[in-house]
Design a protein that fits this description.
The chain has seven helices and eight strands, in the order ααβαβαββαβααβββ. The protein is an alpha/beta fold.
Length: about 240
């Protein structure tokens, strides 16, 4: 068993983009396009899970949220605006510094920490880990660590690329090849398919509630879909 989910080479890869993270036309432009799609799914499951008013502006009021692999805060900030008391962690100190600076400029109080989930204490009502598991040293142990931090009745939402030829083509050959994401971001051998993900979740004591695809088309761009081939989101409970 590994003692940490962190892979140093992965940390260095993402830390190098810290100064450009919040630039919607910069090195992380694809994350800016992906973020609204993720948020729509997360908000839908927040409303379903806690039976919230779908028109309410702060459905996470009074709840603790943890964003794992937060980068410079693209998801942590919207979670705070939805009312959550947010803790956001990333092993790259450069990204945490960029996240703190940006949140301060927005007047948002987010507990940012340069840490791995294995080193964290406490329980959280909502845990998010977007495009993280495929960068970890031991995906199974990572899921176990997430499950330990999930409060009873809590909700876990994750996203990751599928292990298909289509995903390899779009995510690596096209996106990295044409500079849409930094070269070397992805390792296809670490991509995880939905069935394997469900089995790993079950082994970690998690109950998978839903799997939904993130697809791409020339007319719609990135969008939620029943097509799981490119990328997918999962919602789970303990």
């Amino acid at each position: 068993m590994v003692e940490t989910s962190v892979v140093d080479s992965e940390v260095r890869q993402f830390a190098a983009q810290a100064g450009d993270w919040w630039n919607p036309r910069g090195s992380e432009a694809m994350l800016h396009k992906l973020n609204p799609v993720r948020l729509a799914y997360i908000r839908d499951w927040i409303d379903q899970h806690w039976q919230c008013d779908e028109c309410g502006r702060r459905p996470l009021e009074g709840k603790r949220a943890l964003d794992v692999g937060c980068g410079a805060g693209l998801l942590a900030e919207p979670l705070a605006r939805l009312g959550a008391q947010v803790t956001a962690i990333d092993p790259a100190e450069e990204l945490i510094a960029a996240a703190l600076e940006h949140a301060a400029g927005q007047g948002l109080a987010i507990d940012y920490r340069a840490a791995a989930v294995e080193n964290l204490e406490g329980e959280f009502d909502l845990i998010t880990a977007m495009e993280v598991i495929e960068h970890t040293a031991d995906p199974q142990q990572f899921l176990i660590s997430l499950a330990r931090r999930l409060a009873p009745g809590g909700l876990l939402v994750m996203s990751t690329p599928n292990s298909t030829n289509w995903s390899r083509l779009i995510t690596i050959t096209v996106a990295e090849g044409f500079g849409l994401v930094p070269k070397g971001t992805h390792d296809f051998d670490k991509f995880i398919g939905p069935e394997r993900m469900k089995a790993m979740m079950a082994q970690a004591g998690l109950n998978c509630l839903d799997v939904e695809g993130i697809a791409w088309s020339p007319t719609r761009g990135l969008h939620l879909s029943e097509d799981l081939r490119l990328n997918y989101l999962v919602a789970a409970t303990r």
